[in-house]
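Dear colleague,

Thank you for sharing your sequence with our group. We've completed the structure prediction you requested, and as agreed, I am returning the results in plain text so they can be pasted directly into your records. Please verify that the sequence below matches your submission; if there's any discrepancy, let me know and we will rerun it promptly.
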Amino acid sequence: MEITNVDKVYRYTSTWLPVSLLWLAVSPHAPAQECGGYTGEKCTTLPHVLVTSSEEKSATGVQSITEERIAELPTGAGNLADLMKINPAVDVSRHGKSSASSAVMRPEEFSFHGQPFYQNLFMIDGIDTGSDLNPGSNNDVFSTPSLSDVVGGSSPQGYYLNVDLLEQVDIYDSNIPASFGGFTGGVVNARMKRFNGKNSLSLHYGIERDEWESFHVTEKDRQKFEQASGINAEFTPDYRKNNYQLSLQQGLGTNTGLALGLSRRESSFSQNYTDALGQQQPVDYQDSINNLHGRIDYTGFNNLEIGTSLRLSEREHDGITSPRYADRFSKSHRGIGIGSNLEYRFQEHLITLDTSVDMLSDTMKAASRTFEEHESREGTLARQTGGFGDVEQQQTRISLAPKWQLPEWQWGNSHHQLTLGGNLSHTRSYYERPEDVEFFSYACVTDASGANGCADQNGNGISDEGDEYLQRDATYGAGKVSLNYVSTAIYLDQKSQWHNWSLRYGLRADHNNWLKSWDLAPRFSADWDLLGDGNTRLQFGANRYYGRSFLRYAVNDAVRSWNSMRFYNKNGDVVREITYDDRSAAQNLETPYADEFMLGWVQHLGPVDGQLKLVRRESEKEIIRKKNNEGLYAYVNSATGITNSLTLEFDHERHPLELAGTSTVARLGFNWKNSTSSLQGNSTLNNGGGYDDALTADKVYYQGRLVSLDELPAWDYNTPFSARLTTITQFPAARVTWSNFLHYRQGSTQARDSGDNWQDSSNTRYDIYEDVTLDSLMTLDSRLQWRPQLLSSVEGYLMFEVSNLFDEVIDTSTSRLDALNGNFSAGRKFWLEAGMKF
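Please find the predicted structure tokens below.
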């Protein structure tokens, strides 16, 4: 690797790949012509573009992305977040990707219109598949899992989907129909691949290497980076990433077809840490995400289609308990499910029934459930050994979602269509430590004189365990917290057309027997075709969305009460015993909700379609953990927030630009956003913004006055201005597709505890908060794909992708510990992939 010092930020770069990219981009191509198996039509036709679904004309917040477009976009690691970034209503965390830790495989989280990232709805084939375990605790924990609190590292995404296995993704960000519930943010509705009528088999292999990446670290962290110092994957200078993928389409008779997809994305990297003796110890880590999807569809019945599916997604990585207690552990985030979809048509009626059983889990498996320390080993051997045992948290949900769409009917000059539906689910979840974890601490009977270790007691002349006594031990007891509940929802959704007006109005009622409340969510949207020609439309809407509740609220402080500790004298007598109380207070929770008000304008200007949209979200009764006057903790509905979001988009999908035998479509989007929230994170640790990160004060001193917490800027997902440009160009004669994604993000502002206090006239002290603003960032991701026809029935595949072509980075550190930590956004990296399709 070549090392260059630029503005005290070290860049580790490789130069031959950018040259290759430039050469491919400027290479001449033959004129357009028929290309048979490449598209099945004229190659200059560009189907399946990014558009708002025409079926949801009055719901301007819908964007549909098809299988073909997913394959063409530069989606990097192929996670949902990489796909969501093209939507201007979506924001990703400033802590999502770090330049120094590129080997970590965890997908990013994302937010819609400033709402909490854990309050999105994730659906697969019509069924809610979100994780309600502890989704707000999303930080990876490669080391030191907690024994007195819940283990973190979960995610709201029950399945870490590989987007290459999807047939279509529908993204709802505003004016969301009543058929969707369980969110205050947005909806991601994924449709897995079905049999497309043509038998095929495709195999792909991709690689990414640290030699092809430009890393960015501060000068003070340079040595730590080069040595991969630590055990928490903060620095990963040496890594290898591989991607394996298989996709099968196979007919199983006249009316039956199979779609099968398998993928594995894996990363291996090294870490080094300093053990208790001050010696460097190397350790190799593995991080991987596996996906499997299999689906069989049958269409042999009249007016009836049936599909059944199996899905599996698992991310697994290992870690070290701590530099002192160095036993290995592995953590996994797994989703496995089976589902079915039934669709029946009769006399213009449409009845669908979606069913599913999904088991989602976050587990930690340790090499040992005993850890101990020995004073006799001081100076010669590691004093501490062992590990922290296993943890399991699991959610099993059985879901049933019927829907009945009635025939369209007419009343005077108006046309109407009513849809009735519901959801019924039973959820069983638990957090468990399956076995006791034991800790033993041994001290010297008599300390050695003038040296480390113990004075000899057993006559063998050395300091060893025979010279010790048990000074204290602790039991981190086995325990389990379970939560079982039934959720019920019914809804009606009606579309009406009257003259130049298109209306959609609905009502949704949700209930679960855990919170024991009925939540009524009205939905309304309207579309007014001002001139009657479809070219100029005014749109508006008013909607309420109710969110989700999590197992974490039920666990609260219970884990602490499983623990006890005992102290002994040299004779082995217990001299003191400590037990720990469950500091959970009684809770009376309600479902958080957000009210949305939307105003939009749609305009067709020749070949260009434009859309301007203002969305206001007012969040109420968001849940946060607080400590009461008695020292007990409870989750309460006391957090609020307001986000105003303005988006402007242009595209020319209806009229692709055809020039010199090429065909190009582009989409340009802008977003302006202002977001305030009382869901504030921990200014010292530089994390949070979720339900477990409550501030103890109700007011702080900010910008020269006392303010309540909900007047502070949102902790994260609060980019004030962003711009996105997506272009896709096809070179049909050369069988090449070139796509680009240009993304500009203005630096966001966070209010941070300065560490100082302000005192009012009554001598009451308040924390002083000050603004910290990040720099702005512009990145360009680019992908080149070539599909040569090798034989009449064999197609090759080569793909070259570069993310952050400009290699622009910013420091994303906003913590009060900035003097100790320097975190940068991801640098330039490259990905190569090859494959064949039969």
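Summary note from our side: Residues 1-58 have pLDDT under 50 and may be disordered.

Kind regards,
the structure core
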